Amino acid sequence: MVASATALVVVNTVIYVRDLFGGSNSAVAIALGIYGAGSMAVALCIPRVLLAISDRRVMLLGAFVSVVGTASAAVVSITGGVWGWLALGTVWFVLGAGTSMISTPSARILRRESTDLNRKSIYTAQFSLSHAAFLITYPVAGWVGAHASQFTAAVTLAVLATLAALSAAHMWSRPHVAAHFASDEVTNASAETRAAHQPRPRGGT
Predict the structure, then answer these.
(1) Does the global pTM surpass 0.85?
(2) Is pLDDT above 70 for 180?
(3) Helix runs in the chain, H state only
């Protein structure tokens, strides 16, 4: 999901803004900034959200948002005028929010599910796997967009994102996996809640 949405934004924003809408380089920067704003808005809110909602729900919701956003980009590609610009800004903000809902909690899960001995290896493996996905989605975004259309590229990326989301939901719904993560999330949430309500030591006089 993250790879599809990110590839769409990183590779094709300049095509949407310059070629489809006739915008300037400044408009490209603004569009990328809107995507970043969506990501930052979620990243700032997510610590408090995770005190009440499980990592799984937040990340699967992020997967759904990313799929919808990627599919909506296909509609943006065939929309012109003022409505096209409004749609582009809205969809790019949604894509930033969706990818952040997946990426931000993932670091917490990796830390929670690792030990001091294997943490470096687990983070390395996650980094390698995520960038292996980029090796697929970046060429798809560029090649399909150049040889077919931006509409086709967005639909193709949305299909890949949907398959990834369904796979994640299926694997995370397995009883032993769900029970394991649920137990860890309850323990972690309880610890964070206790820490948040502990009185802070006052400074000396």
Answers:
(1) no
(2) no
(3) 2-14, 25-49, 55-76, 81-112, 119-139, 145-147, 150-172, 175-197
